[in-house]
Amino acid sequence: MYSQDLIDAVLKAADIVAVISSYINVEKKGRNYMALCPFHDDKHPSLSISKEKQIFKCFVCGTAGNAITFVQKYEKISYPEAIRKVAEIANFHDPRLEEEAPKFKVDESIQRLYDCIDDLQKFYVYALQTDEAEKARQYLQKRNIGPDQVTKYGIGYAPLNGVNTVKFLQAKGHSLKAIEDIGIALARSSGTSDHNAGRLIFPLLSPFGQVVGFSARQLEKDGTAKYINSPETPIFHKSEVLYNYHNASGSARRDGYIYLLEGFMDVMALDKAGIPSAVAIMGTSLTPEQTKLLKKLRCEVRFCLDGDAPGQTAMMKNARLLQKEGIPFRIVDYEGDLRDPDDILQQEGEEALRKRMNNLIDSFDFQLNFYLNTKKLDAAEDKRKVLNAFLPRLRALPIGIEQENYIVKLARATGYEPEAIRQYLRQSPDIEQPGFDETVYAQEKIHEGLAKHPEKAYMKKLRAAEGALLKQMLQSPEAVDYFEKNVRSFYNDVYEELANYILEYRDEHRGDSISPSAIISQIEQSESEHAGELTMEIANLAMSSQRKEPYSQALMDNYARVIQQEKVSVREHINAEKAVKTGDPTLSGAAIKRVAEQRARIWEARKKKKEE
After folding, report:
1. Under a CB-based contact definition with an 8 Å cutoff, are residues 218 and 225 in contact?
2. Rounded distance between C-alpha atoms, residue 260 and residue 360, angstroms
3. What are phi and psi of 22, to 5 degrees?
4. Topology (CATH level 3) of domain 4-98
5. Burial class of residue 220, CB neighbours in 10 A (0-12, 13-18, 19+)
6. Which helix (H) or strand (E) holds 542?
7. SS3 state of residue 233
C-alpha cells in the first residue's frame, strides 16, 4: 500500500468538489455542494459535499468518505487504483505512484521463503517447456487451456527428478531449511526431493499476488491423490487463500459480483467465457478468513458449487457464513444439471456457460429448495427453527401471489399447513395495513427495549456527550489535548477508535488542523472490519461540526463531567440488572431499588401510551 504521506499529498492536491464533479453534476447549496447520490436510487439530491472538510456524505444511504473513497466506490476499483485516479484528476505527479503494486514490508525470515518459492515457481514454469513435460502440455491442450491462460495463471511442471529441483534451489543460494519451510521437501534415501515431482503445477497466490504454495495434479494414476496441496507453512495457510483472488478482485469491484467455484478449471472456464470475476475455494466450505476476503470486495457473491447433496449442504453452511457477515449473495440454479462449468464449456461452448452462470436465484429460493429436496425435516424443533428463520423474509414480501407461493413452499418444507403459517404471519403487525400507527408501534418497541435494558436511557445521554466532545476534537487541537489529559477514553467503541485515529493524526501533524479527509484515508488503509461504520460516523460528526460551538474550557469541563457521571450510571445499572436477575447480594440495595423504580416508570409510560 502507498505510504500515508503520499496519500495525504494526493488528497491535499485534489479538491473533492472537482473530483466528484468529474463523475456527476453538483450544485452549490450554501456552504456545501449537493448532488444526486450515485450509490442508491436517489430522486432528490441527498449527497452533501463539504469543500471545507474535503469529505462527502449521503444523508439517505449513509455512504461517506473523501475524494479517494468516492472514486473507489463509484468506479468499483481497488483503493490503490483510486489513489492513482484521483492523482490523475488533480494533475498530481509523484514517482511513487508509478508503482503498480506497492510492496509490503515483510520480516526477513519470511522474505527468504518468498524468494525461495519465487525461484521455484520460475523453475516450474521453465520446466513446462522441456521435452519431459510433453504429457503435461498434452493434458492442458486436452482441457483447452491455451498459452495465454498458462501464462496468466502461472501453470508449470515439476520434473520427475525431484532431487534435482532441490539442488537447483540450493544452487540459487537457498538453504535446505528454507526449502523445507516452503513445503516441498520430501526426505528420501537418495536425498531431499520435491514431493510435487512429475505433476502439473498450479501456483497458489496470496490476495496481493505473492506465490505462497502449490497445488500439484497427477498426470498418471499412481495410487496417490489426484491433487496434492502444499502443507501449512509459515507463508501458506489454506484457510486464507482463494484461488485467483489477486486477479479477480479488481474486476469483481467493477462488475459488482464475484463467482465462487470449487476448482481451478472452473475458474479458467469462466475466464474463457468472458467472466474474469471468479475465485475457487479448493473444496466446498468457506472459512471465516476467506469470507473476510470476499467482504472486502463489497460486491455480490454468486455461488456455483456442486449440485449434489454434499455440495448443497456445504452451500447452506456457506450461506449462513455470508449472512452473518452481511455479504449479499445469490446462487447459480442448476435446474437438475450437475455438470461442472468446465464440462459445460467443453461440451456446449461459451454462450451456454454464460447462460448457466446468469441463471441465478436468491438465498430465499435456494434455502427453501434445500429443505424441499435435500434435507428433510422430521423433528418438530427443526421445523420450528426453519419456520422462524423464513418469517422475516415472508413478512417483507407484499401480500399476493409471490408471498403465497413462498408460503406453500414453506408449508411443503416444514409439514405445517399453509393456513397455519398465514395465521402465524398475522400475529405480527403489518405496517402496510390501514390504521396501523407506526409511530406508536415504534415507541412501544422502544419502551420494551428500555424495560429489558434500562441502561440504554443512560447510554443515550452518554453517547450524546461523547459525540459532542468528539466533534470538538475534529475542529480544535485544544480539544484533542483536553481529551488526552482529562477524559482519556470513550465508552462507545466507535468513538474510542475514532479518538485514537485523531490522536495519531495530531501526533504526526503537530501544528496542523485536524483533517477528517486524511483520517478517513487512514481508516481505509487499516482494512478494519468496521471501516465503513467509522467512515460514516466521522463524516456525520465532521458535517455537523460545521455548526460550530466555540471551544471553551467550561464547555469541555461540562462534557467531561457528563461523560464521567453517565459511565458510572451505565455500569451501576448493568450490575444492578445482574443483581436483580441473579439475586446477587454483593451489590447495593439502593442500586437494585433504582432499577426497579426505573422499570416501573417505563412500564407505566408504556401503559399510558396504550390507553391514549
Report:
1. yes
2. 13
3. -75, -10
4. DNA Primase; Chain A (3.90.580)
5. exposed
6. helix 531-544
7. coil
- Determine the Cα–Cα distance for residues 180 and 192; give it in Å rounded to an integer: 9
pLDDT of residue 310: 61
Instruction: Residue 473: name the closest of 486, 456, 461, 460 by CA.
Output: 486
Q: In what order do the strands lie in the sheet with 300-303?
A: 278-280, 257-261, 300-303, 329-332, 360-362
Reference 114, options 216, 203, 192, 228; nearest CA is: 203
Q: Could you give the CA distance from residue 245 to residue 231 in angstroms, rounded to a whole number?
A: 20
CA distance 241 to 213: 10
Whether 51 and 517 have beta carbons less than 8 Å apart is answered as no
**Count of other CB atoms within 10 angstroms of residue 500:** 12
Q: Do 2 and 96 touch, CB atoms closer than 8 A?
A: yes
Q: Where are the alpha helices (DSSP H) in 14-78?
A: 16-21, 67-75
pLDDT of residue 432: 38
Are the C-beta atoms of 56 and 21 separated by less than 8 Å? no
Cell numbers found for residue 479: 480539544
Distance CA 429, CA 436 (A): 8
pLDDT, residue 494, reads 83
HSE-CB at 530 with a 13 A cutoff on CA atoms is 10
CA-wise closest residue to 216 among 155, 292, 307? 155
Q: Which residues, other chains included, contact 172 with Cβ-Cβ below 8 Å and sequence gap of 6+?
A: 119
Cα dihedral 441→443→449→455 (10° resolution): 180
Identify the CATH number of the domain defined by range 108-239.
3.90.980.10
For 357-378, write each residue's pLDDT tens digit: 999 887 777 776 666 555 666 6
Owner of C-alpha cell 481508516: 523
Q: How many CB atoms lie within 10 A of CB 109?
A: 10
Q: What is the DSSP letter of 303?
A: E
- Alpha-carbon distance of 42 to 62, in angstroms, equals 12
Stretches in the chain below the pLDDT threshold 70: 1, 99-106, 306-313, 368-379, 381-382, 385, 389, 392-393, 396-397, 427-459, 527-529, 545-549, 569-612
Q: Are 35 and 44 in contact (CB under 8 A)?
A: no
Enter the C-alpha cell of residue 589.
440495595
Q: What is the DSSP letter of 486?
A: I
Predicted confidence (pLDDT) per residue in 6-51, tens digit: 999 999 999 999 999 988 889 998 889 999 999 888 888 889 999 9
Length of the chain: 612
User: In whole angstroms, what separates CA 465 from the centre of its chain?
Assistant: 31
Least Cα distance to 217 among 253, 260, 268 occurs for 268
Kindly write down the DSSP assignment for every residue of 427-475, as one continuous string: TS--TTSTT--HHHHHHHHHHHHHHH-THHHHHHHHHHHHHHHHHHHHH
245-372 to CATH, choices 3.30.2020.30, 3.40.1360.10, 3.30.420.480, 3.30.43.10? 3.40.1360.10
Report the pLDDT value the prediction gives residue 250, as an integer from 0 to 100. Answer: 78
Decide: 235 and 113 in contact? Cβ < 8 Å: yes
For residue 244, how many other CB atoms are within 10 A of its CB? 23
Q: Does domain 455-603 have CATH number 1.10.860.10?
A: yes
Grid coordinates 489426484 are at which residue? 226
pLDDT score for 476:
83
